[in-house]
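hi support,

uploading two proteins for the ticket. first:
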Amino acid sequence: MKIDMTRWTHPLELGERRFLHPGPLRWLRALGWALALFFLIALASLSTGEALGKALPKTSGAAQLAANIVAVLVGLGVYALAVRLAEGRWPSEIAWRPALPQLGVGLLIGAAMFATVMAIMAVFGLYDIRALGAAPAWIAIGKAVQSGVVEEIMIRAILLRLTWRAFGPWVAFAISAALFGFGHLPNPNATVFAAIAIALEAGIMLGAFYALTGRVWMSIGVHAAWNFTQGYLFGAAVSGGDFGPAMASSTARPGFPEWLTGGAFGPEASLPALVVCTTIGLGVTWMAWRAGQFAKPAAV
């Protein structure tokens, strides 16, 4: 049976005008713009979230969630304005009309993927999973939303898109996945294997959803739901850190190697996560290729 992906795919817009107009050294201009835009979004969004987080009551989960949401909206707004001014277009990669359905699908996929990973862990006795009962979700939702939106804008909409503009899709996938994976090395309990696992499983898979749809919304949904399911529903470490109050507590059983369970860094650095997410990532990459999304030429 042939799957019709026309409902979900949109032609990738890499940037064709103004600063990215065809001509000499467009690859260099694309890289320079990627760096400038990356740090602009980081400064605008993350500094807004940090400032509001300090100004609003730290004891109020709802207030902290509001700070996260405002930071996300600032990041999206600054990105749209910067692209409009420097590239002469309104960014279709964050178009609002397809946001809700693609976010919804992404949320379901992200939650299902992590639940599958933990089911494998439980079946093979690699993890202790203990239910704790109801817990406030404000902090977990806020962290999931901010990490999902801001990181996907920075890594997929900026780095992947503009290195694609400069060098073509395959080099762009390699660079953006490597930077995403090894960008986690400063995190608590990080290892080189954890960085490689994230680069392969998340860097490829999240980039593939962007390549398939031409939007970042499905990638955002997958990213946010994975983190929320991991940190709140299962209470496991998220990239080596604590995600706040959780409904369960999940810890790797002693005696197993870290590459198998993820150790203190969390399940995303485990072999089951690597297999599940990389398999899905390669499948979605194949779907994007079949849909013609990789036919976009590199810069000249």
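and the second one:
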Amino acid sequence: MEQFSKAAAHIIDDVLAHDPIAATFAGVHTYDHDMPDLSADGFAQRQARARAYLDTLHGYDSAPLDVDDRLDRDLMLATIEVKLRELVEVQDFRRNPSLYCDAAVNGVYAILLRDYAPFDERLPALRSRLEQIPAVLRSGTQNLDRPPRIWIETALDECAGAKSFFTDAVGPLVDDRPDARRALHGALEALGAFETELQARLGRADGAAFALGRDLFDYKLAREHMLPYDADSLLEFGESAVRSTQAALESVAARIDASKSWPQLVEALREDHPSEESLLDEYRRSLAAARQFVVQQALVSIPQGERLNLVETPAFLRPTLPYAAYQPAGAFDAKQDGTYYVTPVQADAPAATRRDQLLGHNRYGMLLTNVHEGYPGHHLQLVRSNRVSSVPRRIFGDSSVFCEGWALYCEQMVLDAGIDPDPRVRLFQLKDQLWRACRVVVDVRLHTSGLSFEDAVDFMVDVAHLERFNAIGEVRRYTQTPTQPMSYLVGKQQIMDLRERERSRLGSSFDLRSFHDRLLSVGTVPIALVESRLAAT
């Protein structure tokens, strides 16, 4: 229906105009000079706009719409309803100082991330956003009211990273540009003042709660993710997955060396890694082999023209990306080139530190990482998502259950297809699955049943066998992102269940590559919406 399409386009234009950082990341550069209004009044206006969007969408009955417009309407309604409820009930702008640190860094990083225009053409937007950072951080000082202590600690670490980014990454770019250099100096001063404010608040923090609460947690499961779970049934799923994965680990470990436990085997196998000098070259060879396997086995179609650039992680990102990460192209970028960051060993670090860093780049984990981040994982899925004809799905299609579930599903799928029959690779795949199963348990218990931060860290150390330092970083993130940590394993299971339902529905005409292609063609939306679209074809 043309009228609905115009209404949806108007909402999207308005969303991007008021979220200029998201617009830049998406490849829409109309608002590159702007920063979001993070004042209390700005958040009140967000509520008003969300209500207006919902009024517009409710004005269109779903019955006359075709299947794609109906999917877009359902997606937009669900996304905006959840955001509105969070704005009213959670009010992160009063509780989470990371909101302001993230805006300061990402506003600038989005301008520098891609060479969508020559640097001299991007410089005015860079300077403009730098000039607005003091106002962004002043809004934080004015808005914050009893943030949880753990969130203040997290934001202080982020402030330190932000200062490093501005000094080390942005500074050299504007050294000979006086106006931009002055704007950078002002941004750094504002960061220092915000950091001082957070330090003072840390000294008088009183243990304010971070838990979302059962009612809103259940609402997000049902409305945002469209899952058939509440907190109780999700916890049951997670605990069952922990037990079954532990049993699978023990079985595989016995095949490798019955005299050692699976944690002992993992620790020993981590010693099989490339040298410091050959690290990136080996990643590139392994990545190319994963791509070739996908092609040879006809697991999923690879779009023409896609490209994945594997590069060293920029220095300012290395403290938060110890091993590897994927940065997709924007939904509207002309070039759909993904960037795959691999963090090299720190050349000037002590020998023991360099050795520990290499352990994380072991060859068994490397294969799985390349599958998860590259082929057929995040890169392939997000390139396909960016090519969906539906503009609403390009903007609102950011389902963590689909995105993270697909990447985790791919790890098992390629092993089942025979990419490497070595049981040692299967051991590492199951080890990582156990970690994701533990995330489900901790996610539910942190936000609905009073699990403390310290007990959650202990659980991730004792059961998932994470190093304590990494477990602390993980649980810090879990406290701020309720229902995201459960997405990985839940999403994988959702895709596997959908695959079996499609196999039953289609019978002898079912084809695995066709299933994967149709799955990815819908966009990064909740699996329930994907299934409704597949059923219509």
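thanks. also noticed: DSSP finds 24 helices and three strands in the chain.
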